[in-house]
Amino acid sequence: MKTRLLTLAVAASLAGGAYALDLNDLLNAGKAAMDKSSGTQTAPSSATKSAVDALTPAEMNSGLKEALTRGAEAAVAQLGKQDGFFGDPKLRIPLPENLKKVDKLMRTFGMGKQADELVLSMNRAAEAAVPEAKTLLVNAVKDMSVDDAKGILTGGDQAATEFFRKKTETALTEKFQPMVKTATAQVGLAQTYNKYAGLASKFKMVKEDQASIENYVTKQSLDRLYKVIGEQERAIRTNPIQYGSDLLKKVFGAVMGK
Fold first, then answer.
1. What is the pLDDT of residues 64-118, one digit of tens each?
2. pLDDT averaged over every residue in the chain
3. Phi, then psi, of 152 in degrees rounded to 5
4. Domain range for 223
5. Taking Cα atoms as reference points, which of 125, 133, 136 lies closest to residue 212?
């Protein structure tokens, strides 16, 4: 009920000022694999365990660092360019949930342009912010310990994603938010949303990560960044030989029991 009231309040405000506004699968690199048919984890084979145990700590650490660095750099290159987010329907950042609920009404009041402007500005902000992630991601890999490497190799299908989140999410959030705020500040619809969502968040009517456009876009950007890193890592794991690295082939071949 409270959320509905917020939605109506935003809708009313937007309608009133319509013409005044301008707006994972990642590395399954361990001893666990996901059973695609049942969605349950299966135990690693003895061959996989033996092959992984046979790797030296230096091989394990260096191989994983190479894979994670390549994955992070490729993800940043993919997303940190024009249309990296906006041009991909699977990665495009949509309107926040509470604006989605009034999108049809906004268009009825002739505010479709403002909604479209906000979506574009959010995605352009994300594309501009992502390159800032490269240094932090690469440094996280450089600082990775042998224990970190073993934990990722022997962890579940989210181990590498969780490693990057743990090491970089707080710092990246601090870097992204000011950039996103600057990029969206000129869009009137963003300002209106922030006014009402900020008030609503104080009464727990809106989730914290949707309390402002900059919070929302930052969270969405990072979720997509880690997702793409995961996809890159899966590609390396599936066919390491295509990257021309004997070390990657040896490490991930061991993980796959080959």
1. 888 889 889 999 999 999 999 999 999 999 988 888 887 888 788 788 888 899 9
2. 76
3. -70, -45
4. 2-255
5. 125
Number of structural domains (the chain) is 1
Note the pLDDT tens digit of each residue in 113-165: 888 999 999 999 999 999 999 999 999 999 998 888 878 877 766 788 889 99
Rounded Cα–Cα distance for residues 64 and 52 (Å)? 12
- Closest Cα to residue 237, out of 255, 219, 210? 255
Is residue 85 helix, strand or coil? coil
51: left (phi over 0), alpha (psi -120 to 50) or beta: alpha
Pairing of strands 33-34, 41-42: antiparallel
In this structure, the number of other CB atoms found within 10 A of the CB of residue 98 comes to 23
Give the list of residues 6+ apart from residue 36 with CB closer than 8 angstroms, or none.
Answer: none
Through-space distance between the first and last CA atoms of the chain, rounded to whole angstroms: 56
> Do 158 and 73 form a contact (C-beta atoms < 8 A)?
no
* Whole-number Å distance between alpha carbons of 71 and 76: 9
Under DSSP, the state recorded for 45 is P
Q: Which residue in 165, 161, 172, 180 sits closest to 136, CA to CA?
A: 172
